[in-house]
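Could someone model zinc ion with this protein?
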Amino acid sequence: MHGRIKIKTTVQQEEEKRKERERKLKIYVTARDAIFSKRKNGVLDDEALQLTQQLLASNPDVATLWNYRREILLHLETIREEDDVQKMYDAELSFLESCLKVNPKSYGSWHHRGWVSARLPRPDWARELSLCDRCLSLDDRNFHCWDYRRMVVKMSGVPVDQELQFTDRLIGSNFSNYSSWHYRSTLLPLLHPESPEPHSPCQQASHSSPLTSPQTHSHRVCEEQLLKEYELVQNAFFTDPNDQSAWFYYRWLLGRAEREEMISCVFVSREEERVAVAFSRPVNASSSGLILVLDGQPQRVEWRSIHPRFKHSPVWICKIPPGTISDISNEHNLTVHWTEKHTHRDCALYTGRSESWCRDSATDQELFRSELSVEKTSVLQSELQSCNQLLDLEPQNKWCLLTIILLMRALDPLGYETETLSHFQTLKEVDPMRSAYYSDLCSKFMIENTILKMEYAEVRVFSLSDKNLTSLCHLDQLLLVTHINLSSNQLLRLPPEFAMLQCLEVLEADNNAIENLEGLYHLAKLQDVSLKNNKISKLSDLQPLTSCPKLTRLDLRGNPVTQIVNFQSELAEVLPSITDLLF
Amino acid sequence: MGTQVKDVVIKPEAPSVLLLDKHADYIAAYGSKKDDYEYTLSEYLRVSGIYWGLTVMDLMGQLTRMNQQEITDFIKSCQHDCGGVSASIGHDPHLLYTLSAVQILSLYGTVDVLDVDRVVQYVGGLQQEDGSFAGDKWGEIDTRFSFCAVATLSLLGKLDAINLNKAVEFVLSCMNFDGGFGCRPGSESHAGQIYCCAGFLSLTGQLHQINADLLGWWLCERQLPSGGLNGRPEKLPDVCYSWWVLASLKIIGRIHWIDKAKLRSFILACQDEETGGFADRPGDMVDPFHTLFGVAGLSLLGDEQIKEVNPVLCMPEEVLDKLGLHPDLLS
Ligand SMILES: [Zn+2]
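Reply:
Sure, complex below.
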C-alpha cells in the first residue's frame, strides 16, 4: 500500500495485466486452500512447511501462515533428534533470510526470526548480530532490524560499551542517522549514569555488564560524559548544520533531569478555612494517600483538584472543618503527608495571621535552568560561542537559532532576554510553518522569566503585558499570586489550569482575544476582573465566574457579549454579586 | 555531505478540492470485486479493511450504502471460541482484528453480535506479567497491542478487566529521549507508535505523563515543505502519517503547531481524481487505508463537509457520544 506509483496503461496492457493477475490469483487460492484444509485436518508435515513457504516468500504479512509453521515446527521438534531439530531451525533461518531480503520491513518475518532463534538448541547469536550488521548497512533506519538487534544483544549479553562503539561507528560514517543517536540515548545512561551526588565524579559502571534493561528514559548521564557528547554532537552539526538528528540529540543533552516528586507548597487560609497543596508534578490526591494533620490530629478532609477537568493536577484543595482555625488569636501547625512517596511538608499559621504558606521558590529549585552545575558554566559558554560561530556561517539555520536560545536560557535567562526575543523573531521568519510553536515556546520562557523576577522582588504580583503571549503555562507556580496583569497579549482563553491561582484577587487581561473563561473557577478571593476588548460573545461564556463568590467588579467593555439586548439585566441574573459592571 | 530534505513536490494540476462523492463511490465499489487478486491477497487484514471503509463512509455520511447485514454476519463468523476475532475466515484471531471488529459493530451500535464476555476474556488473557500485551498467543509484544487492548475494552465499557497500572507502566517504559514512543522499551520513536501510546494514555486517563512540549516539537517537525507529514526524521511524507501525527498533536493539545492550510493541500493532492480514494503520496495508487486517514485528517483540520472525528479512536464523535465515551485530551 506504500510507494506504488500509478502508471498510465493502454487497453492492451490492461488486458495483459488482468490475465496475469488472474493466473496469480489461481495459484494463490489453490495453495491457500490446500494449506487451510491440511491445517483443518491437523496435518503437521514437511509438505505443509513447503506450501506455506511458497506463499510466505512473497506474502510475509499473512500472520496465520507463520502461526501454522510454528505449530508444525513445534510438533516436529517433539519427534526429531536434537541435531535434526537444529538443522530444521537452521533451514528456517535461511528461509527467513531470503524473506527479509525481499521484504526487510515485515513484522511477521522478524517476529518469526526471534521466535526461531529462541528455540534453537544451539543458538548462534553472533550470526544474528552479523545479520543485523548487514541489514543495517543496507538501511540504517530499519526499525524492525534495530529492534531485533536489541533483542539479540539482550539474549546474548553483548556488553553495553560494545554497542556504544557500534553507534560510534555508524555515526562516524554518517552523522545523519537518527536511529543511532536514539540508540545512544538509551545506552549512555546505562554506561555512565548520573551520580546521585550532584558534584561527585561519574559512577563507574561496569563496562562489561550485559545490557539487561535498555529502558532509561528517566535516567540521566553523568556530567563528565555529557561534556564528551557535546563535542561529538558539535562535530556532527558543524559537518551538516541542517541534519536534525544531531540537534534533537543535543537538545536532550541540554535538558534537565525530571523534577523530584515532592510537595512544593502548602498554603492555608484562615478566612476560607481552606488548604491548597502544590506538587512538583500532577498527581491524583484521592488515590495517592494525602493526609492532612492539624495540630497533631489527622483530619477527615475531602481533596478536590482545582478543576473538575483534571483527575491529575499539581494543585489540590481541601476544606478544613468549620471553626477549627477561624480564631485569629490561635496558632496552628499543619502537616501534609504524602504517604505514597513517604514525604511530608509542614506549615505554621501564627497568631494574628490570616494566611500562611511554606514552599520552595522557583529560584531555589533552578526550575527553569539546565541541569548542568554552575561550575560548568564555562562549558556552556563555549558551547554558545561555537553555536554563534555556526550562526555567522548559517544565519538562517533554525536548529542553530533554537539551540542558541536554549543555551542562553541555561546560562542566564534574564540577562539574555532581549537577544532571546530577537532570535525568536528570526526563527518565526525562517521557519513560518512552525511559528505557533515558537510563539508558545517564547511565551513559556517569558513566563519563566517573569516568575524569576517576581521571586527576586519577593512580591505576589505577576505582570506580563504586551509581550505577544500566546499561551499560559507554569500556573502552579502562581499559586500565591494576588494580582495578575496579562493585558495586550494574544491569549485566546484562560484555560482550566488558571484555577491554580488560588490567591488571585485582581485579574487584568485587557486587549487579548479571550473567548473562554473556563479557568476562572472557584477562585475564592477574586474580586476584580478586567477583560476589556476581548472576544467574549455569549452570556454562557461568563458562567465560570458564578463560582467566584467575591467577584464584585467586572469590566467587559469592547466584548461582543455587551451587544446583547438587555445585557445588563441578563448579566445581573447570571452574576448577581457584581456591583460594578462596565460595558 | 549535506542532507537533502526528503519530500515530494506537489504539481500545480494536483487536486485541490475535496472530491467526496468520488471517494464514497470508490469505497462502495471496493468490496464488490471480491474475486480480484489484490482484494483476495488482503484477506489477512480483511476485518481492518472493513473498518477503514465503513468509518470513512460514516464520516462522509454514506454509511447506509454499505451492506450492514452481510458485514455483521461476516464479523460474527470471524469470532473464535477463545473470544478473539480473526481478519477473515480460516485465519487466526488477533488483537488488531478484535479491535477493528468492535469498532465496526460500535458504528452500527450492535456490539452484542459478538460474544462480548469472551472478547473481554481474550483481551485480558493477552496481558503479560510486565503489563504489556501480546498481539495473539504467539507472543509478539508491541505498544500497538496495548492500544488495541484498551481501545477494545473502552468501547465495551470493560476497562477494569485488565491490570491498568501495569499496562500504563509498560507503555511509559517505551518513552524515549525525544518524548516519543516506540514498539518496545528501547525502540526508536515512530509516529504510528506515538499515536498508539498517546491514545492509550488518553483512554487510561494518564496523559499528564507525556512531556507534551517536547513530544509536540518532535511531532510538528514532521511537517515538510510540501505540507505533508512524515513518521520519523528524514522520511518521506505520507497521508497515513499525517493522520498519526495530527491525531497525536490533537490528543496532546498542540494541533496548532503545524501549518494546517499546507497540510490540507498536501492531503487533497493525494486524491485520485479518476478513481476516487487517497494514496500515500500524490501520484501513487489509492487504497481504503489511506482514504480513511486522508478524510479523517481533513476532519481534524476542521473540514465541515466531513463529520467530526475522534482523534483517539478514529471514529465519528457522534458514535462515541452515544456510547458516552469521551477520551481525555490535553488542553
Ligand atoms: Zn501510509
